[in-house]
Amino acid sequence: QVVFALNQTLLQQESLRAGSFQIPYTTEDLIKHYSCGDLSSIIFNHDTSQVPNFINATLPAHERITAQEIDSYFRQELIYKRNERMGRRVKDLLEERPDKSFFFAFGAGHFMGNNTVIDVLRREGYEVEHTPAGQAI
Q: How does it sit in the bilayer (predicted)?
């Protein structure tokens, strides 16, 4: 699986450099949606946008199964579990020190797709509000 993942990642990078494969959104698109608090836009609804996409129709059946297994592993280990840990850490800090004020800053990856840090905190009963860029806190 590791060799397969490495080969697929390298093939995608080669395709990007050659111009035969394009990402459906630009960095500017990500920044615009993130800054506007538009975390439910189509760009941010892809759980695997942070990891290479190994699944494609040109793969033989046995490789497609491997690709699905790797995709599932990455989604679970690198996205869902990570956000659960981060959300629990925030919750624990808030509960351990209820008399303190906190400011938490996370990279954009913690807000993409499903099961984000925000989702974890909302499930715990916290209200989370977006603060637009330039707005005083």
A: Single-pass type I membrane protein
Residue (of 112, 108, 110) closest to 47 by Cα position: 112
Does residue 32 lie within any of the structural domains?
A: yes
**CA–CA separation, 78 and 23 (whole Å):** 21
Do residues 86 and 110 lie in contact, with contact meaning Cβ atoms separated by under 8 Å?
yes
Cα-Cα end-to-end distance for the chain: 46
Residue 131 covered by a domain: no
Is 112 within a domain? yes
Residue 78 gets which letter from DSSP?
I
| pLDDT digits 0-9 by tens, 23-57 | 666 777 767 776 776 655 555 454 444 455 666 66
Please answer whether residues 83 and 90 qualify as being in contact, where contact means their C-beta atoms are separated by less than 8 angstroms: no
Please state the pTM of the whole predicted model.
Answer: 0.57
The answer to the question of residue 28 being in a domain is yes
Residues 64, 54: Cα–Cα separation, whole Å: 8
